[in-house]
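step: validate -> pass
step: tokenize input -> pass
step: predict -> running
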Amino acid sequence: MFDDWGFAARVGGRGTWRGRGVAALFCGPSGTGKTMAAEVLASALDLRVMVIDLSQIISKWVGETSKNVAAVFEAAERSGSMMVWNEGDAIWGTRGGVATATDRHVNAEVGDLLQRIESFSGFTVITTNLRQAIDPAFLRRFRFVVDFPLPSEEERRRLWHTAFPPQTPVERVRWEALASLPLTGGSIRNVALGAAFLAAEGDRPVDRTMIEAELAEELRKQNLPVPRVTWEESA
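step: predict -> pass
step: emit ->
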């Protein structure tokens, strides 16, 4: 399409890769499946996944971040990997002023990173928990912006129903009671796994008390209030 329909000349010229790659921004609360979706996409395209930890490549030393970024892109090009940059708002967030040399240095490195993404011939996925924190000037650089909302109550019911493998001994639980709680798929998975560990430790089936204990722990980790679960149906 690029060569036959003439788009190559518009996006960087014949023989270049600028603009031929795909950059997508995945937005949504933690635990809604952004990274998992990127992994599923990579699997469908028969690509490896390279997950980049921004804290490992950002350096306080002038020029070092650009060197680290260059090394990441070279490795992705060689291996034919899809790049997944987690917590993108940490570097693509709204820019401040340029009052100091450090501000100018940071903005220059962000600009360099964006240029490399545009020139990358493969797939790049950036994830963020805070879409509103992404600088609007950066949004146009992404071919796709995909929102990952919290699951609906019916979706949560199905997630709870499948959270425990069939071979897991589970006492009768009314999944609708748990589905009423606004949890993400990641949190539901954590609660189920934690309850299973408690059950295995006590050599007995998973029961309501174990689920409630792990539910409370999961919500405390997120600084959220712990609601009372109404297990019985209303009369």
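step: describe -> Confidence is low (pLDDT under 50) at residues 13-17.
step: cleanup -> pass
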